[in-house]
Design goal:
By secondary structure, this protein is an alpha/beta fold. The protein contains seven helices and ten strands. The longest helix has 23 residues, at about 75-95. Strand 6, helix 6 (about 165-175) and strand 7 form a beta-alpha-beta unit.
């Protein structure tokens, strides 16, 4: 018999925002896998603290690099490719041995998450099911207290890792914006927002739906970098009845 690999979206961080199906799968899983940075407990694992069965076997997939090597360095993809291959071999062996495995995913598994790499490598080899979830950006605009879009607004999700020219063009073209993966790219993001004449509407949300959640105009933040769970929003101002 062959088991099933489940990519389970946990939502933005608050366990109460998990779906009923996600809760059921997590609580019943004999095998739990999750990504984390070496030396850290991992946000996905933290979300399910106290939910796992006593005999659950945990498989922590620890990234060999995060920000230590620039994305443009050829070594970055080489190192991560080897890492994913080793992890996938382990997961595939468990499923082929008849075991069900739950992979914990922050946010939604198919939205800029590491599970996408798992899915693409294993979907044609073993049974894989995906459980969708509330995204971090949804929690962020809810925390902001205002709708992100109105009427015919065009909503764009852009990455702070883009080069400045591309980032500026994307910001200029959209009516409403979600900017992610900011971190040390914050000065570049600020310049792009300024160039697109949208800096005065930018709102910074940190740790949406989690402990330590903050919401404030970006202009009130004077730092040069942001933690991983940070999102900048520009709300749309489109057609209203």
């Amino acid at each position: 018999m062959t088991g099933t690999l489940y990519g389970v979206g946990l939502g933005p961080g608050d366990p109460e925002l998990m779906s009923v199906r996600a809760d059921r799968l997590v609580r019943g899983a004999k095998h739990i896998a999750f990504f984390r940075k070496a030396g850290r407990s991992g946000r996905a694992r933290t979300i399910v603290e106290g939910m796992l069965r006593a005999d659950a076997a945990e498989f922590a997939m620890e990234y060999p690099v995060t920000t230590e090597i620039p994305l443009s360095d050829p070594r970055y993809n080489d190192v991560l490719s080897c890492f994913y291959t080793e992890c996938m071999d382990h997961l595939e062996a468990l499923v082929r041995g008849g075991e069900d495995v739950v992979v914990l995913c922050e946010g939604d598994p198919f939205f800029y998450g590491s599970f996408m790499h798992v899915y693409e490598r294993l979907k044609d080899k073993i049974p894989v099911q995906v459980v969708p979830a509330i995204t971090g950006m949804s929690a962020a605009w809810t925390a902001s207290g205002a709708p992100i879009t109105w009427g015919d607004d065009i909503l764009s999700t852009v990455m702070g890792t883009l080069n400045e020219q591309t980032l500026t063009k994307a910001i200029e073209a959209a009516d409403a914006l979600v900017i992610m993966k900011i971190g040390r790219n914050l000065p570049k993001v600020r310049r792009a927002l300024d160039a697109a004449c949208k800096a005065d509407r930018a709102v910074l949300i940190e740790y949406a739906s989690m402990d330590g959640e903050t919401v404030r105009p970006l202009a009130e933040f004077d730092g040069e970098t942001l933690p991983y769970f940070s999102i900048i929003l520009v709300h749309g101002q489109g057609r209203r009845p």
